[in-house]
Amino acid sequence: MDSLTNRLIADIKQGDEQAFAELVDLYKDKVYQVAYRMVGHVHEAQDIAQEAFLRAYTNLDKFDTTRKFSTWLFRITTNVSIDRLRKRKPDMHLQDAVKGMEEVTYESQLAATDELPEDQVVKMELQEWIQSEINQLPIKYRTAIVLKYLEDLSLKEISEIMDMPVATVKTRIHRGREALRKRMRHL
Amino acid sequence: MKTCHSHDELIHIYLDGDATKEQKEELYAHLQSCPSCREHLQELKKSIAFIQSSSHIEAPEGFTAGVMAKLPKTKKTAKWKL
């Protein structure tokens, strides 16, 4: 594990809150992105990401410092995301997701570049479309697909995050790929 | 076109990068003669490429401050206040 993260964790355990702020700064984009990809809604993603950090803070003693911190943090994040998705009212979900997507893609595009506005529009639509396809995936395939293809993590790391054998992760990725293909094949 | 499922599993093993040399040879030979499996593989590749074309997103402004404001008060702080 990298030494900066190690040092920050040691400081946090000594009661140094500023060290925790630094740790959040270091990992916030990754955690937020996983949360957003899982739930497809900006406000909910922010809420989930914050809760994930708070849980990490209160459970830091349980973290095994010989392991990779991001793996542990992603596990908390996906667990919080899955809890929220299960509690969600089914009829709210689609509308919220669409509303949330417009916002995030708009904001992230504004921050991003000096591209021509037309290019930005095309890209925003593509991003919304991608997220809407991810939102259609059953939760158990979604986690595996997000970690593999959007976070680019190894199967071993995904298996640690999802707390299941590599063989099971592979099966879920296979089924997730098939689910995506079936929706997209006629385009 | 007749739908063929004889190589579905091997196609996924191949996409995972887990196919042995023999498995790859078997798959390539089958693809030569099977338009259904060729199309299946092509569609899967397209789906993966599509998902991977998504942009990275960043945490919103003020995120860290938001987390810090919600931190539970430590016992140490409580003692100091007394």
Give a written overview of the molecule.
By secondary structure, chain A is an all-alpha fold. Helix content of chain A is 81%, strand content 0%. In chain A, α2 packs across α4 and α8 packs across α9. The N and C termini of chain A lie far apart (43 Å). Helix content of chain B is 65%, strand content 0%. The mean pLDDT of chain B is 89. Chain B contains 5 helices and no strands.
Main traits of this protein?
heterodimer; A: 187 residues; mainly alpha; Rna Polymerase Sigma Factor, Chain: A; Arc Repressor Mutant, subunit A; 2 domains; B: 82 residues; 5 helices; 0% strand
Question: Would you kindly provide a brief summary of this structure?
Answer:
The complex is a heterodimer of chains A (187) and B (82). In chain A, 81% of the residues lie in helices and 0% in strands.
List the helices and strands and how they pair.
The complex is a heterodimer of chains A (187) and B (82).
Chain A: H1 3-13, H2 17-39, H3 42-58, H4 69-87, H5 90-112, H6 117-136, H7 139-150, H8 155-162, H9 166-184
Helix pairs in contact in A: 1-2, 2-3, 2-4, 3-4, 4-8, 5-6, 7-9, 8-9
Chain B: H1 8-15, H2 21-33, H3 35-52, H4 63-69, H5 75-81
Assembly of the depicted chains: heterodimer
The number of helical elements of chain A comes to 9
User: Count of helical segments of chain B?
Assistant: 5
Query: What's the main sheet of chain A like?
Result: none
Family (chain A): Belongs to the sigma-70 factor family. ECF subfamily.
Keywords (chain A): DNA-binding, DNA-directed RNA polymerase, Sigma factor, Transcription, Transcription regulation
Domain RNA polymerase sigma factor 70 region 4 type (chain A): 128-180
Protein name (chain A): RNA polymerase sigma factor
